[in-house]
Design a protein that fits this description.
Blueprint lengths: L5 E3 L4 E3 L13 E6 L13 E6 L3 E4 L3 E3 L11 E4 L11 E6 L7 E6 L3 E4 L3 E3 L12 E4 L9 E4 L6 E3 L1
Antiparallel strand pairs: 1-2, 3-4, 4-6, 5-7, 8-9, 9-11, 10-12, 13-14
Length: 163
Amino acid sequence: MGVTFYFSSPLFLLPVDAPWCSPIKVKYGDVYCRAPQGGYYKTALGTRCDIRCRKGYELHGSSQLICQSNKRWSDKVICKQKRCPTLAMPANGGFKCVDGAYFNSRCEYYCSPGYTLKGERTVTCMDNKAWSGRPASCVGKKMSPLSEGTYLGGAGGFRTVDF
């Protein structure tokens, strides 16, 4: 014949051997827990916790966890940094990024000598996983047309023209 010990708060009476879950910690996320009906402790059996990731992060796993009788939460969750699609390399140029293609990363386009940048020079990875602005391109500089010249003559395969 065993004895069950109880401890209590003004609102709740719980046996010492009742199932408890460890407190939830989510890196880059916030946890909002509600104790079971009439309960006070937010890690007791039946506790429900809502998980929300901070700006720039997205939730992988369930958005609501429940403390189960096996003393474990109903799912494992993680908040991963959002990532934008890889930028296309512009012909006759390139780009360099700070922090890759993750949220808040900035990328700057550049062009090879003789080409001019068309579009946004700098783009930023936004919270909606899209880049700000349109991808840039590099266009060749237009050469001014030659004006008519006067043939001055030549010898040995060389010709001279004066403009």
